[in-house]
Each structure stands twice: as structure tokens, then as C-alpha cells.
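## retry 2 of 3
previous attempt timed out at serialization; input unchanged, resubmitting
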Amino acid sequence: MSACNTGIDPALPVLEVRLVGRGEDAMRMEKRLSCAGRALGVNIKIDWKMERQDAPRVYVDDKLVIDRLLETTEIERMLKPWLGAARMSKSG
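## retry succeeded, writing output
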């Protein structure tokens, strides 16, 4: 997995997501979400819900967006349609 800077940049807008899952795949998804957000120019705020799942799931505005562990570039593609809402919400 490539390294990326996942620190919070207060100048960037925030995209809030809910990550449902547990275990290694969910931890990988958390890192990949942060990296995808950085590539898209947003901070990803993750509300993590620990549940027994075969695969991590990601929701935006209560809509299922991702239903399994994906590569970072695919996560970027899946999150792009949600960027309009993030542009309205600045980091605080």
C-alpha cells in the first residue's frame, strides 16, 4: 500500500462518511478512505460503527456507496459524486 499524508488540513472541506465493519479489512478501508479524500482535496471524517461484517461498507448521507474493500483509486471514483456536499462543509 502506498503511503499518503492522511493528516487533517483545515483549509479543505469535509466529507462525512460512516464506515461499518471491523477487523483488518475495515482498518484498511479507513486508511484508503483518508488517502482517497486527500487525493480528491477533502478531509474525510469517518464515523466508525463496529459490526460483524464480511466486508466493510461505507455510507454517505445514509446511502450505501461502497460495499467491499476497494483500491484507493476506485474509492476516489465512488466518492466523486458526493464532493458537492463536502465543498459546503469546511473543516472547523
